[in-house]
Amino acid sequence: MTPQSRPEAEQKNVSAPSAPPVNAARSSGKRPGKYHLGAYFDPADPTAEAFRVLAARTRRSHQDLLAEAISELVAKYEADKQFGRS
Question: What is the dihedral of CA 3, 9, 10, 11, to 10 degrees?
């Protein structure tokens, strides 16, 4: 018998890898309960470079600067009101 012609009963016993439960938290374990929000930029992009310089000169973390920027975007577009959170 060739490997491709296994009996039907034997083929049924081969199980596919199971998917994780839908409600399982997706976390690497490094920051449990946290949500990752990020983007990829070309290192030569002037905005990315300005961001790195700003972080260095203000001695603030990238996470802190991004949190401030996202808060300002939410305020600018009044996202809280538009999505019923006010």
Answer: 70
DSSP state letter for 42 = -
Helix (H, G, I), strand (E, B) or coil at 80: helix
Tell me the whole-structure pTM to 2 decimals.
0.56
- Could you tell me the mean pLDDT of each successive run of 10 residues in the chain, 86 residues long? 52 49 56 88 93 96 94 86 72
Query: Three-state DSSP class for 52?
Result: helix
CA dihedral over 69, 73, 76, 79, signed as positive or negative: negative
Q: What is residue 81's DSSP assignment?
A: H
Other residues' Cβ atoms within 10 Å of the Cβ of residue 75: 10
DSSP-derived letter for residue 41 is -
